[in-house]
Amino acid sequence: MKEQFRETDVAKKISHICFGVKSAEQMRQQAHIQVVSKSLYSQDNSRTPLSYGVLDHRMGTSEKDRPCLTCGKNLADCLGHYGYLDLELPCFHVGYFKAVIGILQMICKTCSHIMLTAEERKQFLDFLKKPGLTYLQKRSLKKKISDKCRKKTICLHCGAFNGPVKKCGLLKIIHEKYKTTKKVIDPLVSQFLQSFDTAIEHNKEVEALLVRAQENLNPLVALHILRRIPDEDVPLLLMNPEAAKPCDLLLTRLLVPPLCIRPSVISDLKSGTNEDDLTMKLTEIIFLNDVIKKHRISGAKTQMIIEDWDFLQLQCALYINSELSGIPMNMAPKKWTRGFVQRLKGKQGRFRGNLSGKRVDFSGRTVISPDPNLRIDEVAVPVHVAKILTFPEKVNSANINFMRKLVQSGPDVHPGANFIQQRHTQMKRFLKYGNREKIAQELRFGDIVERHLIDGDIVLFNRQPSLHKLSIMAHIARVKPHRTFRFNECVCTPYNADFDGDEMNLHLPQTEEAKAEAYVLMG
User: Fold this and answer.
1) Does residue 183 carry a pLDDT above 60?
2) What is the rounded CA–CA span in Å between residue 183 and residue 151?
3) What Cα–Cα distance (Å) separates residue 86 from each residue in 35, 50, 51, 254, 256?
4) Residues facing residue 34 across a β-bridge
5) Which of 48, 121, 319, 417 could form an SS bridge with 281, CB 3.0 to 4.6 Å?
6) Angle, helices 219-227/97-106, rounded to nearest 10 degrees
7) What string of H, E and C letters represents the secondary structure of 3-66?
8) pLDDT, tens digit, 9 for 90 and up, residues 128-137
9) Mean pLDDT for the chain?
10) Of 229, 233, 250, 322, nearest to 22 (Cα)?
């Protein structure tokens, strides 16, 4: 039950919101357990989740009869708790992949300093200190810094040679260190090319490939480079050192989301459970972790470990975004799953499907028609709708006689009431059955009567698509016979309504606070 009225809290003002990237240490602090086991259930028949597995009930619960083991609350009250799992080798985060390439293009790959002269650094830092920089100004500044850095091939700090950094295939970055476009070849490069002379004598094929000599920036190398970036250079990458360090853009740990986000469905047909896509991806990631660990201990070939690493990286990427393009045929998953990105984006995603347009109670929808006899702030509501939409009214000395009448009328006669909730018992009573006269006489102050919508109630009226704020406005209800919502034609323009079969929605606010808010802000 929503409260009819709340005492307003001491006003607090939010100064700002800052988004950042969680570091591995913050993930560990947020999590309650470390997940290590790849099996979901223990081997007994009672189907108990394995401790330290992906379905450990310390991360919340997804079943009605099992409480959460961390806070002891049930399914409805427990918000869930996070776990974490450590990756055996670091991986690129598929969402931050472009950002990592962008950063690597701006810094020296040997000493991790930003490739700018002292004057340029001072100039850019001064510009960054201006208060109230807009997003577009920051974006153009980042482009300027990036262009300046890319043009330089020799690091001003350590004198090392730097070439262009490029994406190469799926989640791989290469650094073409010795690529030269100039006529004059740097002594460093010529020395590097001469070191292959003996090899070329024995194998002529090497010569043709020498032009393409490059170093592979795998996640481990990239992580070491990003970790060494000095703190005073981080603002020049347009990152806020308090919110995120550049090395946090690579995955060394994964947060395991609470169970209520990925519930297990026990199927009645065959004895087993239907696990969520995220749960299955996490078990695959743990399994690959174990494989890499075994191979490293047993001293397998480097080629094998690198293949496992590529696979682990792909699974971590699919866990976040399962619509990756360009996956090689031998690594492509058999079955398509939904990643986190798929849960959020698109028409059926969290934002558009469940937050902007969710299914709600206390709403009605029907065809609209014109009625020039109504005021422009009124809407005619059919009796059929008015009997179903209810408002929880608290009984007090001013309205007790009116409430008695409504309770006596019951749910079938308008104006009437559908339910009553007595103050001391939490039980709701349906007024269709039972002795309504007796209930009406026993009404006490503080009881809640769920009465029908009546004339003068404030309702919200909405026509989709809601393209601007006038697509939802507050009207005063007038209960009338017949079966359509009617309103004055003067109000057609803001709703963009015509009467060729349009339907509109009507919502009845459930608290005095919401009523006042609707009337004042949306009237």
Assistant:
1) no
2) 16
3) 8, 18, 17, 6, 10
4) 84
5) 319
6) 60
7) CCCCCCCCCCCCCCCCCCCCCHHHHHHHEEEECCCCCCECCCCCCCECCCCCCCHHHCCCCCCC
8) 999 889 999 9
9) 90
10) 250
